[in-house]
Design a protein that fits this description.
The complex is a heterodimer of chains A (112) and B (114). Chain A is built from no helices and 11 strands. By secondary structure, chain A is mostly beta strands. In chain A, strands 2, 4, 5, 6, 9, 10 and 11 form a 7-stranded mixed beta sheet that branches. The N and C termini of chain A lie far apart (36 Å). In chain B, 0% of the residues lie in helices and 54% in strands. In chain B, strands 2, 5, 6, 10, 11 and 12 form a 6-stranded mixed beta sheet that branches. In chain B, strands 3-9-8-7 form a 4-stranded antiparallel beta sheet, with no helix packed on it. A two-stranded antiparallel sheet of chain B has the order 1-4. The mean pLDDT of chain B is 93. Classes of the chains: A mainly beta (112), B mainly beta (114). The interface between A and B is medium-sized, with 22 and 22 residues.
C-alpha cells in the first residue's frame, strides 16, 4: 500500500491567503485524523472523522480552520484567512477501526 | 484527563550502548499505548503498540517496550543503539472512547555519539 499521502509537502503563503491541505488515507481505513505540530505545543489533534463524518473538532483552533471529508479516500484542511501563527507542520493519519494510526509525511506550512 | 509524560527532553547515548526512554501515562482505563519515531523532516513511524496480553511487546528496528500497570509506565528499550536511531521519539496513549485518538507526550530527542 502507498501509505497516507499528503499534498503539498511544503506551502509558503502570505498572511490573509487561503490555504488548502490535502490527504488521502490508506485504502480501507475508516478513521482519519488531522494533527498540527509546533515547537511550542507539540502534536495536537485538530479533528477526526469516522466513516467520513466529523466526530470531534474540539481541537480546531478557530473558525478560520475547517475540514471536510467528501469521500473515504480524500480529506481537506482549509485555513481562511491564514495568519503567521498558523505556521506549523500538519499531519494526516488514518486507522482501521480506531487501532494504530499511520501518519503521512506532513505538510510544512509557512505563513509570512 | 488523559496525559503522557516523557521526562527526558534530550538523551545522548554512545553507539552500541543500551537505551531506555521513559514514558508515564495517566488514563482511567486499560490503555492502548504506542511509541512512534520521527526523523527530521519526516512523518511519524509506528515502532510498537500495546493493546493487551503480554506486557513486553516487540517492535520494529529492534525496539521493545514493557507495560507496567502498577507504575503507569511504558518504557521503550533497545539493547544496542545504532547511529541511525538518532531521532525524536513520542509515546502516546489512545483514548478508546474517542476512536482511539492519540494523546502524545512532548517527545524525547535521541542523540547517538560515535
Amino acid at each position: 500500500d502507498a501509505g497516507v499521502i499528503q499534498s503539498p509537502r511544503h506551502e509558503v503563503t502570505e498572511m490573509g491567503q487561503e490555504v488548502t491541505l490535502r490527504c488521502k488515507p490508506i485504502s480501507g481505513h475508516d478513521y482519519l485524523f488531522w494533527y498540527r505540530q509546533t515547537m511550542m505545543r507539540g502534536l495536537e489533534l485538530l479533528i477526526y472523522f469516522n466513516n467520513n463524518v466529523p466526530i470531534d473538532d474540539s481541537g480546531m483552533p478557530e473558525d478560520r480552520f475547517s475540514a471536510k471529508m467528501p469521500n473515504a479516500s480524500f480529506s481537506t484542511l482549509k485555513i481562511q484567512p491564514s495568519e503567521p501563527r498558523d505556521s506549523a507542520v500538519y499531519f494526516c493519519a488514518s486507522s482501521y477501526r480506531g487501532y494504530e494510526q499511520y501518519f503521512g509525511p506532513g505538510t510544512r506550512l509557512t505563513v509570512t | 484527563a488523559q496525559s503522557v509524560t516523557q521526562p527526558d527532553i534530550h538523551i545522548t547515548v554512545s553507539e552500541g550502548a543500551s537505551l531506555e526512554l521513559r514514558c508515564n501515562y495517566s488514563y482511567g482505563a486499560t490503555p492502548y499505548l504506542f511509541w512512534y519515531v520521527q526523523s527530521p523532516g519526516q512523518g511519524l513511524q509506528l515502532l510498537l503498540k500495546y493493546f493487551s496480553g503480554d506486557t513486553l511487546v516487540q517492535g520494529i528496528k529492534g525496539f521493545e517496550a514493557e507495560f507496567k500497570r502498577s507504575q503507569s509506565s511504558f518504557n521503550l528499550r533497545k539493547p544496542s543503539v545504532h547511529w541511525s536511531d538518532a531521532a525524536e521519539y513520542f509515546c502516546a496513549v489512545g483514548v478508546l472512547e474517542y476512536g482511539n485518538k492519540l494523546v502524545f507526550g512532548a517527545g524525547t530527542i535521541l542523540r547517538v555519539k560515535s
